[in-house]
Amino acid sequence: MIGLVLVTHGALASQFVAAMEHVVGAQRQVEAICIGPDDDMEQRRRDILDAVASADSGDGVILLTDMFGGTPSNLAISVMDKAKVEVIAGVNLPMLIKLASVRDHASLGEAVDLAQESGRKYISIASRVLAGDGA
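Structure tokens predicted for PTS fructose transporter subunit IIA:
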């Protein structure tokens, strides 16, 4: 099973895990790393590596961050060469729900592709959808 490690600004990571589990039920091999403004970033990098090790059963780990270019994303990217991981920036709930359903049978590459597709698919502008103009 592919592990998941969420790395975000503030408590967003733990709240995303709670929301995902609210929808799909309890999940194994999922870790949350919440980055605060006063954190020791080298310690947080070590925390990410520990979380990756905890979440990895041999199939790899997807690190999900809130925003490309932000500190959480930069920290996640900095560990890519130390483990079998992929980093996806711009995490959202549809992406997590998709990953929960495919991570026990998909390859790491397939899972990140499906997550990206789901994440994009469910970004909608309600007024346009209701007017029949698409997303």
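The chain is about 45% helix and 15% strand.
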